[in-house]
Amino acid sequence: MRILLTNDDGIYAPGLRALRAELQKLGTVTVVAPATEQSAAGHSVTLLNPLLVSEVFEDDGTTLIGWAVEGRPADCVKLALLELLPDPPDVIVSGMNAGSNAGINVLYSGTVAAAIEGAFYRRTAIAVSLEYDQKIYDYATAARYARRVVEQILATRPADGTLFNVNIPVLERGPIRGVKVLPQNASPYTEKFDRRVNPRGRTYFWASPEFLCPDPHPGTDVEALAEGYITVTPLKFDLTDHARLADMRGWAWELGE
After folding, report:
1. What's 66's domain CATH number?
2. How many domains does one find in the chain?
């Protein structure tokens, strides 16, 4: 099996390294990931600057891991599929992200955007994230769980272009309670900004790292993640409101004289 591994935390991120080690048990893993952290980059792509690419090797200096791209996560997947890989991958895995990408966070996430880009190109794509708890991440254990989930998803032989979002809960809270397949929570998160003034008197703001969902909605990914379950959500990138589309086709449109 050929596996393309990417992320938004950067090619040297420990979450990617841990997940790579586990995915190598399933097949050949090639990494194409950002050279620097691109958290919350969403689905942005680079148009006005060149995409510089560098080979990255294991510590032995001879074994090629893949390529570091000075661009966004979506750029990495585009370059991998169109320029860098000699053969198309059987699956694209994005992660393991430092911090969950549940609920509406999927709209901001570079991790999920990379997976969506893979799905655009009719590849099975899986985003994987580990919930944030302001402590040391147990990437090795989380990666083992992620590999088992990826393995079971692929065993179902999903159709080309199928997209999945996987979130692993904070492991320090206790044993994983199981896996739940649930819809994405669409409630907004509570966000805060730290207001400061620089030495020149200019006001600036730092976004707080604490994102709380006050309305987790029973039966959604946010609630199950907080309860200690791994969540798996199938996603679609078609944003069309099909129910409203049918209604709007009956509107009497007028353009005037």
Report:
1. 3.40.1210.10
2. 1
Cα–Cα distance between 156 and 197 in angstroms, integer?
54
Helix pair 14-23, 139-155: axis angle to 10 deg:
50
Contacts of 220 (CB under 8 A, 6+ apart): 103, 182, 183, 184, 185
Structure confidence by residue, pLDDT tens digits, 157-192: 999 999 999 999 999 888 999 999 999 998 888 888
| 110, 115, 118, 122 alpha-carbon torsion, rounded to 10° | -150
> Residue 70 — very low, low, confident or very high, per pLDDT cuts 50/70/90?
very high
Q: CA-based diameter of the chain, in Å? A: 73
pLDDT at 135 > cutoff 90? no
Residue 120 covered by a domain: yes
Residue range of the domain that includes 29: 2-186+218-239
Would you say residue 194 lies in a domain? no
pTM over 0.90? The answer is yes
Domain assignment of residue 79, yes or no? yes
Residue 57 contacts residue 64 (beta carbons within 8 Å): yes
Cα separation, 143 vs 17, in Å, equals 9
- The whole-number average pLDDT for the span 22-38 is 97
Determine, yes or no, domain membership for 255.
no
